[in-house]
Amino acid sequence: MSTSPVLSVKDLHVSFNTENGVVHAVRGVDFDLYAGKTLGIVGESGSGKSVASMAIMGLHPTTADITGSITYNGTELLGLSDKEMCQYRGKHISMIFQDPLSSLTPVYTIGDQIAEVLKIHNKGMSKQAIKDRSIELMRLVGIPSPADRLRSFPHEFSGGMRQRIMIAMAIANDPRVLIADEPTTALDVTIQAQVLEVMDKAQDETGAATIMITHDLGVVAGMADDILVMYAGKPVEIAKAEDLYKYPSHPYTIGLLGAVPRVDRSQKTSLVPIEGTPPNLLYPVDHCSFRERCPVAKNGGQCCKDDAGEPELAPLKGAGEGHYSSCTISQDLISTAEELYTVPETPVSKFESIPREDRAPVLEVRNVKKHFPLMKGSLMKRRVGTVKAVDGVSFDIREGECFSIVGESGCGKTTTLLEIMEFSKKTDGEILINGVSTQDHKSVSEILELRKNQQMVFQDPTGALDPRFTVYEILAEPLENQGMKRPDIKKRVVELMKIVGLQPDHVNRFPNQFSGGQRQRIGIARALAVNPKLVVLDEPVSALDVSVQAGVINLLEKLRAELGLSYLMVAHDLAVIRHASDRVAVMYLGRIVEIGSVDEVFDNPVHPYTKALLSAIPVPDPEVEAK
After folding, report:
1. FRET pair for 186, CA 20 to 30 Å: which of 7, 98, 154, 542?
2. Strand partners, 455
């Protein structure tokens, strides 16, 4: 292997002019990337990961102020015009973007889009050679019937298949550097494993040096050789992957690892929340950027005094070679998150001492089916088949229980939730809420009473909250629908804000004035407003950073214990399911193929599909991932 780096980034700074002032998004990033090696860059949203990668690709607007040095094989890239950068983009340095649906052009076929990448950088390439290479690339990334699928459009592929096409386009010209920006964030666990396997294969084929940008510490554990942890636009720790997971030394890194639920652990303990938010990069940072959230500083530690300035990366004695940390007391901090952070006590529900069979059911689903007709023809439509989205699903949820449904996209999870929430008299099968069937003819007041006992928290907190309403109006609306009087509504809204850990005096703010985690807490408060017995959780933490996710999961567990709630949860992160659930059902092609207690299903799976799902889950530990 060459001793010279393929890509070298030195003292990279990126800032943007905004209406409020200059945002210093990246503040001094340094790393060297070698052929055949993978560098993982992790950190919360806003830490500067994607901004740094876009600077390497030369994709920032001309208004961005970029300084420092980015060299590719000894050639300086900073300062090149857009036309000059086109000689490198797509040929020498390629990027796999986070959202393949918005990255692919919907009006061109897949064949046209792959061909474009080849035409631009290979002027003399014949049409037949381009077609052959396109088919070869699609076969390499695992697209079935590649010659036929060249004529397909992006919307005719699943999310995982679209991401495979993005990988095919990125490796089309055998680049020396491959940048993957959150390539598996929106994918199911099995599709994620397949995409990561394809990326690994692509790296072997091209010998490319890879930058893997993600907030999923499980993904980089199995992929990366080195890991760089970013916080507030600056690296705070960098080390070999095995060394970082074994001896994390910066309080932020320790907190990130403690915030991740582990699928390989059955013990029920609260996750480590990193309280607070990163600093506002509109203003200069003249001390340790993590100080306001650091457990050492909060406990009176003298490691980051006001006059000390912002600490720089320094080698860590006693750790592996190349292990650097910016914490001035890192030497003393090689410990676990539980030792460093204040971890909330594990909440205990009053129902835990009561056997499951003695608890009353809050929801019973009996042989529920939802079939959709498959139609063909433009003018004269005819039925050519049936899509069995949900095909005879049965389960029950008892008081104080968290029941989860897992499976790949398209297995029928969300359709099952919608059938439960719809209260339709036409439902094929039977749904009982607290022993009352939703199919019985009911008055409006009776339906309102049923809805009161069953509320929902949606996946995307931004889309689920009306941007024109204040938080007070959002929380008051369900209470008004239940006929509550105004003085009681005001009292209940303040109580709800306290329950979910938000400041009551923030009720007059709008949703866009809150962070993602705070918005999800508002969504939870709205669901709790009318004191439901069952809360339906549709991917409640998938849109959140790992540190924020930990706080929301802890909150949900605390509320379940204190208020005696039951949960019906759908999530594609099986580590979250393992941590939060009591019972779990595995769905495949509209049917439940395995159901039982979460420990039984995860530790001793019986169905081959369950075994395949569990084997695909990444674990945030390189030693475990290597087995």
Report:
1. 7
2. 535
Which residues, 6+ apart, have CB-to-CB distance to 623 below 8 Å?
242, 245
Q: What is the pLDDT of residue 156?
A: 85
CA triple 186-610-402, angle to 5 deg: 75
The DSSP bridge partners found for residue 198 are none
Pick from 192, 264, 344, 342: which is nearest to 579 by CA?
A: 264
577 backbone dihedrals φ, ψ, rounded to 5°: -60, -45
pLDDT digits (tens, 9 = 90+) for 118-135: 999 998 899 999 999 999
- Cα(583)–Cα(567) distance, integer angstroms: 10
Both tokens of 320, joined, read: 């592996």
Put residue 500 in one of left, alpha, beta given phi > 0 → left and psi -120 to 50 → alpha: alpha
Collect all residues with Cβ–Cβ distance below 8 Å to 522 and sequence separation of at least 6. Answer: 461, 465, 471, 474, 475, 500, 502, 511, 514
Pick from 507, 509, 520: which is nearest to 475 by CA? 507
For residues 344-375, b (16+ Cβ closer than 10 Å) or e, as one string? beebebebeeeeeeeeeebbbbeebebeeeee
Instruction: Determine whether 448 is exposed, middle or buried from the number of CB atoms within 10 Å of its CB (0-12, 13-18, 19+).
Output: middle
Q: Are 617 and 194 in contact (CB under 8 A)?
A: no
CA distance 79 to 89: 15
Burial class (CB in 10 A: 0-12, 13-18, 19+), 39: buried
3-state helix, strand, coil in the chain (%, to 5): 35, 25, 40
Produce one character per residue of 303-317: b if its CB has 16 or more CB atoms within 10 Å, e if not.
bbeeeeebbebeebe
342 within 8 A of 270, measured Cβ to Cβ: no
Q: How many CB atoms lie within 10 A of CB 381?
A: 10
Name the least confident of 249-263, 331-345, 444-458, 498-512.
331-345
Q: How many Å apart are CA 403 and CA 452, to the nearest integer?
A: 20
Pairing of strands 93-96, 75-76: unpaired
Strands (DSSP E) along 557-613, which ranges? 566-570, 583-588, 591-597
- In this structure, what are the phi and psi dihedrals at residue 584, rounded to the nearest 5 degrees? -145, 145
Alpha-carbon torsion angle 257, 262, 267, 268, nearest 10: 80
Q: Report the distance separating Cα 246 and Cα 491, nearest Å.
A: 49
Taking only the tens place, the pLDDT of each residue in 284-339 is 888 888 988 888 877 766 666 655 678 888 888 777 788 999 887 766 665 677 77
Query: What angle separates helix 189-206 from helix 608-615, to the nearest 10 degrees?
Result: 50
Structure tokens at 36: 């055949």
Q: Please, which residues bridge with residue 596 across strands?
A: 584
Token pair 């049965």 is found at 394
Token readout for 346 is 């594990």
